[in-house]
Amino acid sequence: MPDKATIGQFEQIVLAAVASQRDNAYGVSIHAAAGELSAPKAVSLGAVYATLDRLEDKKLIRSWLSEPTRERGGRSKRHYALTPAGEVALRESVRTARRICDTVERLWNTATNPATLAAVTATGATR
Amino acid sequence: MTPTPLPRTVERLGELLVPPAAAEHVLGDLAESSRTPREYLRRLLTVLPYVVLAQVRRRAGTGVGFNALHSAGVLLAWQWIVAAPDLNSPAFWAALFSVWGIWVGGCALAAAYGPRDKPIQWNAVVLSATVILAMLAALLLPGLSALAAAWAMAFVLATSPVMSMPWISPYIHDTVRIQQRLWFGGDEKGPFRMALLRHFCMWGAAWPGVALLVTRDFQSNAGIAFLWVTAAFAVAAIIAGRTWGGFPREVPDHWQILAFHRMDISHRLRLLRVPLWLYIPGLETRAIRMAVRHPELLVSALPALAALVVAIWLMYLLATRFLERQLDQLAPLVPSA
Q: Is A78 helix (H, G, I), strand (E, B) or coil?
């Protein structure tokens, strides 16, 4: 089995943006989706291109060129789709994000409700 | 959104600035998402550094890194030995760094702006501009005249690809012969270790050879010190080549060996695009010395030099085509991972 590629936070956002666009994942649509995911932080189109290239080199996504269209000045779109390894990486990062979210929410609940402190501590002790 | 059609000059500017490998989809995206030529240009300039850096990362690779290290070493060695510069002078270091920066940065850009369908080919225009700029910057260095810089660069361009040509450092692509060579390594890492050793020996042996030439020309203590350092480097490299594995301990089967040789051929193709300063500073140093002492010879030798460049360029073309044919033959034999 090949080594799992490690991905950073912005790569996770772009990977999720590619997945969310399904059959319509190309530069402009991925940029828009990534912008929504990272709001209120703005996302630069150039950073999206660089990340797409990097994800492709890591074999987490694949790409192909479509037919040229007039609205694009007679140029093609480069479409992107997740590879099986990309889906695994995305699922893994979702699980990690969920664990972080659960832990932080428990901590915040503890801060506001001391009664849950024992439960959190007990959960931590059993791990 | 109904974007207004872009003026042809704006489109041409985009085609000129964006690396060919990314131009089709990047320029299409910009045309689709920009309502006015002004917005198109603004977005183009914002996107450009990312796109260029991404292509440098993808296409320049280890070849440019290798070139950067070697050119830095060779430039320093030349200056140290040839010109005996004032090492405490910031102006000297600024000039040296300018030459080196232009050369390495230009090579990286030449790789990034290479043709879309040929990932390892460099952009000839960018490379030519880099050569000219590096030569102009070299005039800032002590001890180099314009003629000497031109002469040295001509040697760099003419002779460096030769060392990567398949007839000079041959490889074996025939399957039967590859299997016969397995006994040499004595264990399961045989072919890999042998290739590594061969590379180390070639590189290691080149340095002392160069050092000998330089020392003979300039008779300086610095040259002798350089000789000792490089000889020690060669010995260390050969010892490392013999003892250091660095490859997976797997029994190489038929496909692994073929895959290894495919990788080796690809590597050679990449080397043909990288001027290997390492192999030729001896020649260059001698050329500079001759140009400085006998400029009249330089003028009479120019036609011969031009003929040499053309001849080597033709050999370069033949070599790349030969290697590309070998790659085409190997590709269908090796199953993809």
A: strand
Q: Does B17 touch chain A (CB under 8 A)?
A: no
- The tokens describing A74, both together, are 């007679």
Residues 50 through 69 of chain B touching chain A, CB cutoff 8 Å = 50-51, 53-54, 57-58
Q: Which amino acid type is present at position A125? A: A
Per-residue pLDDT of chain A (127 residues; tens, 9 = 90+): 445 667 888 999 999 999 999 888 999 999 999 999 988 889 999 999 999 999 998 889 999 988 888 878 788 899 999 999 999 999 999 998 899 989 998 888 876 666 666 665 665 555 4
Q: Across the interface, which of B3, B31, B50 has its CB nearest the CB of A46?
A: B50
pLDDT for the residue numbered B245: 39
Record: contact B50-A75, CB cut-off 8 A: no
Q: DSSP readout, B119-160?
A: TTPPPHHHHHHHHHHHHHHHTTSTT--HHHHHHHHHHHHHHG
Q: Looking at beta carbons, which pairs linking A94-103 to residues 24 or more positions away fall under 8 Å?
A: A97/A12
Picking from B160, B165, B167, B96, the residue whose alpha carbon sits closest to that of residue B127 is B160
pLDDT per position as a tens digit, B20-72: 999 999 999 998 888 888 999 999 999 999 999 999 988 876 667 766 776 67
C-alpha distances (whole Å) from A122 to each of A106, A115, B41 are 12, 12, 59
Interchain proximity A76–B27, CB inside 8 Å: no
The torsion defined by the Cα of B112, B114, B118 and B119, in degrees rounded to 10, comes to -10
Q: Give the number of other Cβ atoms within 10 Å of residue B4's Cβ.
A: 11
| The Cα angle at residue A71 between residues A68 and A74, in degrees rounded to 5 | 35
pLDDT digits (tens, 9 = 90+) for B134-145: 877 877 766 655
pLDDT > 60? residue B7: yes
User: Which residues are CB-neighbours of B277 under 8 A, at least 6 positions away?
Assistant: B67, B70, B71, B74, B156, B160
Which chain A residues touch B if contact means CB-CB below 8 Å? Answer: 26-28, 31, 44-47, 49-50, 53-54, 57, 65, 68-69, 71-73, 75-78
